[in-house]
Fold this sequence. Notes:
By secondary structure, the chain is an all-alpha fold. The protein contains 19 helices and 2 strands. The chain has helices at residues 19-41, 47-54, 58-74, 76-86, 88-107, 112-139, 144-175, 179-199, 213-236, 241-263, 277-307, 312-323, 325-328, 330-339, 342-362, 370-396, 404-441, 449-469, 474-513; strands at 13-14, 203-204. It has a two-stranded antiparallel ribbon with strand order 1-2. Helix 6 packs antiparallel against helix 7 (144-175).
Amino acid sequence: MVSSSAQPLPQAVTEATTPERHTGTLVAGCLAVCLAQIGLVLPAAINGVIQRSLQASGAELTWISDAFMVPAAVLALTFGVLGDLYGRKKLLVYGSLVAALGYLVSATAHSPAQLITGQALSGLGAAALFPASLAVVTAGTTTPAARARGLASWTTALSLGAFLAPLLSGAVVEHTSFRWAFAVVGVLALVTAVAAWFLTTESSAPEGRALDWPGQITIALSLLGLLYGIIQGPTDGWSSGPVVGAFVAAAVLMAAFVGWETRSAAPMLRLELFRIPAFAASTVAAVVGMFGFLGGAYDLSIRLGVIQHQSPLQAAVPFLVIQGITPFIWPLLVRLLHRTGPGPMLVAGFVFLATAQLWLRAIPVGEQGLLVLLGPLVLNGLGFGLVVAALTAAAVNTVPQQHTGMAGATTSLVRDLGQTLGPAIVGAVALSIAAGRIASGLAGAGLTPAERGTAEAVLGAGGPIALHTAELGPLSAKTAALTQQALADGYGTGLVLTACACLVAALVSALFIGFRRPAEPLADAPRH
């Protein structure tokens, strides 16, 4: 903590830079966010292989995805403060090294618990990379046009990471163990650390910033409790003591966080930023809309890998289509950010996402060809590119430049929180519905009493996905159609939920961000 008697620090500190150093910083920042996004998306195309290789239950499969996103969400604000205080370049280097350690743990995993641990470590590294990469990219810009170009480059790199992740994991796992996919990304993390060390121009904004441990602890435990309750609810029972206790603790700790931040002399999150309508609306839209996007993507990954048993490379192709759109619309993103502002981009992007998810739900689960999925996949890609670029711009462009680190960290937190809630809530809703359908359908499945007892035991222990993928001889053949349809119904309901979330985000964007042309950035504080 900075003592109250300390002399005032400069509000923004940036190393002297040349055009070459500015380009190097942009490259390093984009490489860092690309790495972080690869880690976030990596399991999507190989969820089915991971489930079969480790015999993971439905809840464990959700934790494998969310273990990465939980630290990325709950620690983003703290890493934003650390970057402002001690330098964003250091965060890029150390965050990449921590991510590399996590990928090493995942690459040697032989149990769901070890893979979850590795994912958590990699997510810890990503928690530093997301806000630090955005901050180094925006710190060197001084005009709306330059900032628009920097934000568009950062967004394109983020989308490129999401594009490369399924291609990498699908291609590697098609010919070898899923563990090698994590090993390859670990090597990329080491390359990113080296690039950040040699290419990045250091920047910081320490004025009024200090580590806020009470705030960090309360927000971290609150979000962890919320996620535990959501993920474990279908398995442990929504009225079970641990689940109810987790939800109560989450609410109490969130209230404590807000109360502390209101009184703190150096808060990790300046609540007055939420008095800026565009900033507040962008955070609401980020939570709700990114829940809708990644919840839909998780739903698609379960459909392809777990329900349809497609190969890793086959399951990767739809995600390549989704994530391959943004690089092609990069010039459009630059023009839209500079000329129209984030409002129209958010509304159009969220509507595209909602339409795509409802379209996907209407396609029968037995349809496995790419052509029938192409329409909703392209709409998903267009929506993702527009939304991510506009969310970041709506947040960063509305605050003074000395607060861009905090705004970037807040944007990372709410975006990652929404993405973390996506798999958790969609998985909870889908598995609860599927379990009910299977339990009621076993009576008419033509099973002997012994077979029904076995099916009920597997369902109770591992959930609908475990029963659908278990190798139980004749029993599996008798229950295959029932479990497939039950899972399709459950995850179909998940798509309705995510589509509604995207429509809510579109409405919030239209009402509170609006369709005004972008204004000049707020005046920067004097630099010393």
